[in-house]
Amino acid sequence: MPLRQSVTNALPDGWRVASIDIRHEVKRTIVKAYTDLHTRGIMHGNVRLDNILLHDNQVTLVSLESAATIYRRKGSNLPLCSEADLEEEMLKLKHLLRYEDDRLLDHASEETVGSEDLAKVAWTCTTRQ
């Protein structure tokens, strides 16, 4: 009788699958995890929310069967990819997460009108009539 391994789809307590509704800080941590992977020359190869697991402030990337590398390594059976592939994967990840770059968020917050500014505008409009 062959030995069989039992595989379960249930996550351990406290773990969850990433979603687009997570806080920006968590999205930033996910982007950093992919950046760290890419810095090592490795492409995940299967960017999907259900391949990103979260627990506390930790991100775990799973399902690396489609991984590739930009480096030819002796004894490695990983397929090769290019820098362009890494960039494309990062764009796909950011699109999937609906991730807004921090620089864009900083710029947007600078342009946000505060309630005191709105009160001044409203007062100016009503006094000019």
From TrEMBL:
InterPro entries referenced in this protein's UniProt entry, alphabetically: Kinase-like_dom_sf (IPR011009)
SUPFAM superfamilies registered for this protein in UniProt: Protein kinase-like (PK-like)
The protein, known as: Protein kinase domain-containing protein
